[in-house]
Amino acid sequence: MLEWKEEYSIGVEQIDEQHRHLFEIGNKIYDLLENYLYVDKYDRIVSIIQELKDYTKYHFQAEEDYMIELKYPRYFSQKVEHDDFIQKIEGVDLESLDRDQDKHIREILTFVFDWVLEHILKKDMLIGA
């Protein structure tokens, strides 16, 4: 589980709120992984992955629009990282996920939490600066 800390704030309220929501989606993945009452988690994780895809596309577009408005010099590198993230999420092999659900859910969770934290702390912080 990953909790939002004020030190993750970049100082742009709209973007910070969206980042908090990404944490919430990541925590849905965590909660699903830790829920041992569900024998079959496939439909639930597919739904969360779709939510993650939809929301990251929305968030990345908002963030990119903000960077364009600011004439942010690192816009292109941010855009590439955003596109890579979406490509990774869209590339989740749902057939493999169905065969070994907890393993793949754990991999998705690790990827999302690591990427989001790394990206916010090292890249997005520069936008607010």
Automatic annotation (TrEMBL):
Iron is among the record's keywords:
yes
Q: Which GO terms describe its molecular function?
A: metal ion binding
Q: In its keyword annotation, does this UniProt entry include DNA-binding?
A: no
Record keywords: Iron, Metal-binding
Instruction: List each copy of the Hemerythrin-like domain by range.
Output: 11-126
Pfam families on file: Hemerythrin
Checking SUPFAM superfamilies in the record gives: Hemerythrin-like
Which family does this protein fall into? Belongs to the hemerythrin family.
Name the chain's protein: Bacteriohemerythrin
Tell me which species this is from: Desulfosporosinus acididurans
Could you read off the lineage of the organism from its UniProt record? Bacteria, Bacillati, Bacillota, Clostridia, Eubacteriales
